[in-house]
Design goal:
Blueprint: H1 34-53, E1 57-58, E2 61-62, E3 64-67, E4 72-75, E5 78-80, H2 85-106, H3 109-113, H4 116-132, H5 135-143, H6 148-174, H7 179-187, H8 194-213, H9 215-221, H10 224-227, E6 238-241, H11 243-246, H12 271-274, H13 295-307, E7 314-317, H14 319-322, H15 332-354, E8 358-364, E9 370-371, E10 377-387, E11 393-400, E12 405-408, E13 413-415, E14 420-429, E15 438-447, E16 454-462
Antiparallel strand pairs: 1-2, 3-4, 4-5, 6-7, 8-10, 9-10, 10-14, 11-13, 11-15, 12-14, 15-16
Amino acid sequence: MNERIPARVIETIDPGKPARPLEGAIHTRSFTGSYRTLRMLGSGFLFLLFFGIVWLTWNDRQAVLWDLANRQFHIFAATFLPQDFILLSALLIICAFGLFFITVAAGRVWCGYTCPQSVWTWVFMWVEKVTEGDRNQRIKLDAAPWSWNKLRKRGAKHGLWLGISLVTGLTFVGYFTPIRGLLQDLLELRLLDAGVLWVVGFAAATYLNAGCLREKVCRDMCPYSRFQSVMFDRDTLLIAYDSARGEPRGARRKDSEPRAAGLGDCIDCTLCVQVCPTGIDIRDGLQLECIGCGACIDACDTVMDKLGYARGLVRYTSERELDGGRTRWLRPRLVGYAIALSVMIALFIWALAARPLLSLDVTRDRGLFRENTEGQIENIYRLKLINKTQSPARYQLALDAGDALRLNAPAEFRLAAGEILDIPVSITRVSDRGQGMTTEIRFALRDLDHPERRIDTPSTFIAPQR
């Protein structure tokens, strides 16, 4: 017997309703509201971090600098080397699980409030409003023939867009190349320098994404929009239109009773569509293009306030709540993500705290052994010492192998901050007493200025059978 998978219609297509165009500029209307305020505060804080931290100094160097040329990554008092790449991998995994947790709990709020594509798009749309006017004025300007007024407004808009893009590109590249030197190169128009070329490239990408492509990036290019719906369940918070309350929609007098006229609370003003940065109609149901920014909620609540209706015709809610139930927060998948995320964050903090500030790698020479001029057996080793601190240090190397073996190495090593020293050393067997063909040994490296900083690395000593 064949079983059919039940299907639910989430969007009804009205044949009399014109299809929403997929191409062309989307002109959003200005609006106010609590979610807009929240987004502006969050975006302002992120902008302050992004544009401000890059100019901070720490111990006579840039506080946050991922120095790719020297393969050193400075984050205030901590310096990370390529050997610490596992920490970066762990951080990316934590970010991924954090995104999964947020998506299961509240849908695409990451996209609407903190995604760089959305944040810079809102900034570019604000510039558009300042230079060309609000929605209706911009629509008229698009339809108007070219004139000095249109050229002036368009020139001002694109000039500000290019300025913001250039500052964005400079700041981004400044996290990988010292930004003060990079700014000097840019002011001196050294356009063929690698750093300046990267600035121009990222500025062009910002201008293209936030100014020209906008919602097309979210709709057609972003992979997150493709798989995020798989993570939703009936308790995920989404922006939804309460059709049971709003339908049938239609215009009415402010002092009229909608139910007496056979109408719902929706007056079909289309403000929710006019403020949407991706140009969708939230009343058509859950859609791929919705980024969860809450703009339609602010617009609808404003209309409800003017009419004296209750807010929440468009709101953050769950499918279960729309069906008359209550949203469940303690559900297995959400709790599982929360536990996994908490454990990973705790382990990551522990790994950072326990990260050794010096490193010693030992590689024995591919030759098994050799005999010196005194007839003693020697093994050759190559040591790589790494000072992971931000200050010069003195180190002493010792051998833990008993009295039968002697380490032939300098008494002291001096390494600058972040320096990597690669040196050969040898170990000589001065006594055959109690020694076999293979002897387990340990190299011990100790910081002379901070005795608590010590690291041991095992190896083997090989000799011929006597």
